[in-house]
Design goal:
This protein is an alpha/beta fold. It contains 11 helices and 7 strands. Strands 3-2-1-4-5-7-6 form a 7-stranded mixed sheet, with helices on both faces. Helix 4 links the parallel strand 1 and strand 2 (about 70-75). It is globular. The chain starts with 18 loop residues before the first helix and ends with a strand. About 35% of the residues are buried.
């Protein structure tokens, strides 16, 4: 039985994370973070907010560069891992940031596409930054994991649900996100879509269980397992080669913007 889908900003609509699954299946996120970390270029003494810090892997790198960094996330499990690394982190809703001109930079990697109220996010970041502060991030852009998102819509539609509400990610175009940043007082220095075919080091079932948990939580067993198997069957012709190796079609939106003085 397909459960009704809730408001995408409601607490029960939030993606739940397993720290062990994330460590096993999400390592590619940190492995591919070199360009965005270089764009941030953290400096000793800077106060930096890591928005959607997860288990703190990149937060630790920012700290190692000499910055005073605070990581925020809404996952208790991932934050517990970050705390074990000795990092300064807290649980917070990124849609309701209450900082005022506190940070020299706000950084976010592979997190903003989970946050379905982008106007609230960017507005909160603008308030949190000091004049001239920078907002640097990378997240899923238009066309990201298109085959997976299409399969999700098809599965929900076949079961009598609303396919338009099956996918809860936010994957904007360059024009859309650039306009949003400018509207909140940012001067956009760089914004680009980066296509990135990414081989999986795990099987597709493991990836789906980790990153699409919100989707499968709609179903009771045994239908949940049936839906997972159906998803894999739908994706195999496009994303799995003759040797059984899976590839996902990532499209990342990478940007760097500066809060204009006086805005």
């Amino acid at each position: 039985m397909l459960r009704p889908l809730t408001d995408p900003l409601a607490p029960d609509a939030v993606q739940r994370w397993s720290a062990s699954d994330f460590a096993k299946n999400g390592r590619f996120i940190q492995d591919l973070a070199g360009p965005i970390f270089a764009l941030l270029a953290p400096k000793p003494g800077e106060r930096i907010l890591d928005l959607g810090c997860g288990d703190g892997t990149l937060t630790a790198e920012i700290e190692a560069a000499g910055a005073d960094v605070l990581g925020i996330d809404n996952s208790d499990e991932l934050l517990a891992v970050a705390r074990m690394k000795g990092l300064s982190v807290k649980k917070a809703d990124a849609h309701a940031l209450d900082y005022v001109q506190e940070f020299d930079a706000v950084f976010s990697n592979a997190a903003l596409h989970w946050m379905r109220g982008p106007d609230l996010i960017v507005g909160g970041v603008a308030r949190a930054l000091r004049p001239g502060g920078r907002f640097v991030g990378e997240f899923g852009g238009h066309g990201n994991i298109a085959a997976i998102a299409t399969a999700m819509r098809a599965v929900v539609k076949a079961r009598g649900g609303d396919p338009d509400r099956a996918v809860r990610w936010y994957f904007p175009t360059v024009e859309e996100y650039g306009t949003l940043l400018s509207g909140h007082g940012f001067a956009v220095h760089e914004i680009v879509l980066v296509p990135r075919l990414t081989p999986l080091k795990v099987d597709m079932q493991g990836w789906l269980r980790t990153f699409c948990r919100f989707f499968f939580d709609q179903f009771e067993e045994p239908e949940r397992s049936e839906v997972l198997a159906e998803m894999v069957d739908l994706l195999k012709p496009s994303l799995c080669d003759s040797q059984g190796k899976w590839t996902i079609e990532l499209v990342r939106l990478r940007f760097s913007a500066e809060r204009r003085p006086g805005e």
